[in-house]
Each structure stands twice: as structure tokens, then as C-alpha cells.
Write the C-alpha cells for this entry.
Amino acid sequence: MGSLFRKKSISHILKDAEEGMGDGHATDSQLQKVLTVRDLTFFGIAAVIGTGVFTAIGSACFNGGPAVILLFSFTAVACAFAAYCYAEFASTVPVSGSAYTYSYVAFGEIFAWIIGWDLLMEYAIGNIAIAISWSQYFVQVLKGCNIYLPAWITMDYSTAHSGFTTAINALAQHQSFASLDENIRNAYIAWQNAPAIGGLRLIMDIPALFIVAVITVVAYIGIRESRRANNIMVLTKLLIILLVIIAGAFYVRPGNWHPFMPNGFAGVMSGVSAVFFAYIGFDAISTTAEECKNPQRDLPRAMFYTLFICTALYIVLVVVLTGMTNYSKLNVADPLAYVFKSQNSALSNIIAGVISASAIIVIASVLLIYQIGQPRIWMSMSRDGLLPKIFSRIHPKYKTPSFSTILTGFVVAVPALFLNLDVVIALTSIGTLFAFVLVCGGVLVLQNQKDRPESKFKVPYLNGKYIVPVILFGALLWVYLKVPGYYQGLLHKEGVPMIIFFIVAIIVSIYTFIKNFSLIPVLGLLSCFYLMAQESHTNWWRFVIWLAVGLVVYFTYGKKHSKLADK
């Protein structure tokens, strides 16, 4: 049993990194150290501002109304706690692998495998969602140019079938086809016109496949090329966001901000998946640690710069969007372009066209960052023997994880042909939150290690001995008094995640009182776990099943081939 919790030594990790032997190859196989704090910040912005702004923000506003700014604010606070913890780990263990490597140091091999497997889901599923979102904008831009692709090559099978069924039911009730929602009409046409083999209709998202292939090539040929491409795309992205904010301010009607919270607090929190999907840039930054010129200094700075810039832009953007158009109309695939189209003026239509065209570039930048991140996690797991050696192979010319990058392309491109956007966004969010929870918990372990090396950044120590229990007790009492019947309402399958949260929160509070745990990591752990608890029970089941599959892989391969086992 002890072998499951064997840990990696920080000093040994740093020694291997200095000697260029982290991947088990010669020194000339090292990754290129070319990234500065500006590049890292741009990587972070690229990962945080993308699909969340151009797609997911619409559904979040639809569910929560203007009050969704509260969710963005709370999520930003939770991310700030997590960012402190990521920054300390990145400064202490400046190597590729992100939360996977951090968990190996803090908790041991089995937890490292679990979080590594979780990160594989987070990046792969996240990229699938991004590819699908890019495809939606791409198709809209082509329509604006009077180019119409066959509907059956622009969406997934599930969406087409669901839309077709909805359309049939509506037509049976004597509704006209023209009165149906545009997305429903497109799905109906796709289903009707799709070629079939036997009873199976061939419906797939070809544009999503195309963009993944292009981005995989860019990620494969080198970090310098990826950096240049990303910096250009991020500058374009920031200009578009500022255009929306400044131009949109002239169309704001304050009456659209009422009611502020139309669906109550539950409606606001139902947008957790959509909102948190926008905040997974910290992990992506930390995967590039071995390609930074000064990772111990620059990684923490880039994380905080990313958080401050992106949170401010998100909150202002939500205020403008919900002020321009009633929240109930924002559940669309392209909310930024839609709010300008709905103004029905020549200028607003031009701006809408610019936004849609630019979204193609903006969303592609997010895809690039994640396609860079996932191969480096595979590479780190392979270095430790938990995956075959081929995953850590470095290309002799391009200095990138060659096999892992190509495999990432296949893992993302094929599912992107067939999966639904809403499902993959939810899975990405719960996977990211789980990574944040373990990183925050890992800092608590790291701070109590006597032989830990000095780092250039440490989470400020504030004793949570009394503060955490008081906050938890106060919150439980407030809910009991202000929300009658809330606790009894948890006694069903959708309430199980919150019951788990309360149990974990009580246990953490007790340990904080006994062990004098640092306040910031504890608040980060609890706030991220609370956001996890807002996910549906079906999403939790999918997550648990994925982790169970990962444990099977670990016990059949990873545990036997672990390099720590040899030692």
C-alpha cells in the first residue's frame, strides 16, 4: 500500500531539470527556454478569454441574468486563492507537469496519477469544446459571405437528432417551419439531408476537425512559432473585447438590468460550468515551466496578471451585454455578435460582422494553448514511467513533445466530430476544479515539509485556526435561517454533491483548527470544491467513471513501470 503514496523529491526534480535529463534523453533534447513574463501572460489571456467570452457567456447570462457578474466575481476570488497556490508550486517546482507534478510532490504517486488523468480529460475535452465553438463561428462567417456548407457537416449527431425531434413535434402541433428557432431548423435540415449507411446517418462537424489539424501542426513545429502566433491572436482578441465594450456602451439601456436576479441565486449558480470554463488558464501557463527563461519569478507574475486583466474584462463585458439586450435572449451560440445584430442598425451590423470574423482567430488562440499544454503533461507522466517512453520523445529539430502532440491532435479531432458542446464544457469545468482543489491541498502539505527548498514566491501565511470554523458555522447557520427547508431539499440525487461538500468542509475545518492550516489554501480548497458541488450529479458520475478508467490503466501499467518503483 505504501508504494501508492511514494513521493518525488523536490531536490531530485530540480537536479534532473538542471541536467536536462528530465525526459530520460540527452541534454540536446531539452525544451527551448524562450518564454518571458509577457509571453506567459499572453498565454494565460489566450486560455482564459476565448470560448468563455464568445460562446459560454451567453448561456450564463441567460440563466443568471445581470446577476451573473456575482458568479464571475466569486469564481475570480476562488481562482485567486488557487492562483496563490499554483504560484507557490510553480516557483518551488518549476518543471512541466503542472498539478500532476505538484501532487506527486505533495501527496504521492496515486494522487499524481489521478490528477494527471484528470488533466488529460480537462485539456482534451476542453479542446473539443473549443473546436466545436470555433466551428459554429466559422459557419456563421461563411454564411455572411453567402457560402453555405451542407448542414450535416457542421454539427454533431446528437444536436441534429434532438433538433429534428423537436421540429417534428412542433410541426405536428401545426407550427410553421419558418417560426422555429434557426438552430432547430438547421438541425432538421441536417438530419433530413445527411447521407446514411443502413439506419445510421453520417452527421459530423468537419470544420472542428479542420481547425484541430491546423493548430496541431503549429504546436508541433515549435514553441517559438506558437508564441508568435499566440501573441498576434491575443492582441486581436483584446482589441475586439475593447471594441465590444466601448461600442456596446452606446446601446446600453438600463432597463435591461431589471430584474437583476431573475432566476434567483440558483439561476446564477447554474452557470458555473459556463463561467468556470473561462478560468482554466492558470494550469495551461504552468505546463510551460521548462520553456520559461525564469520560471520561478515569471510564472507567479503571469498568473496574477492574467487573473486581474481577465476578471476585469469579463465583468465589464457582462454589464454591457446584459445592458444591450434582455438576458432572456442571450442563450445563443454567438452572444457578442448577436447583441449587435439585435440593434438593427447599419453600424451595429458591421460591428457584428467584425466580431464574428475575429472570433475565428480569438478562439483558435485558446485551442493553441491547450494543444501545447496536454502533450507536456503526457510527457511528464512518461518521464516518471507511468506512460510509455514514446510519450516523452522530444523532436530533434522542433524541440517539442512530438508523439504526444500528434496524439493530442487525434484525441481532440475525432471526438470533436461527434460530441455536443454543453456536455464537454461541463466535464472540463469539473475536471479543472478538481485540479485546483488538489493544488490548494498540496500547498498545505508543502508548507509543513521541513526539507523543502527556498522558493521566490510563497503563499502568505494567515492562521485559519479560528477563522475557517467561524466562517463555516456562520454560513451553515445563515442558510438554515434564510433558506428554510434547504438541507432537507438535499436529500435527493441532485443534492448529493452538496452533501459531499458539507462533509469535506467540516473535516477541513476541524483539521484547520487542530493543525493551524494557512487560511488562503484552505479557502481556495473549499471555494473550488463548492463550485464543483454546483455541477449536476450526472456530471459527477461521468467524472467518477473517467477516474475509474484511469485507475485501471494505472494498476495495469503505471504502477509496474513507475521509476520510483525501481528506486
Notes: The two ends are 16 Å apart (CA to CA).
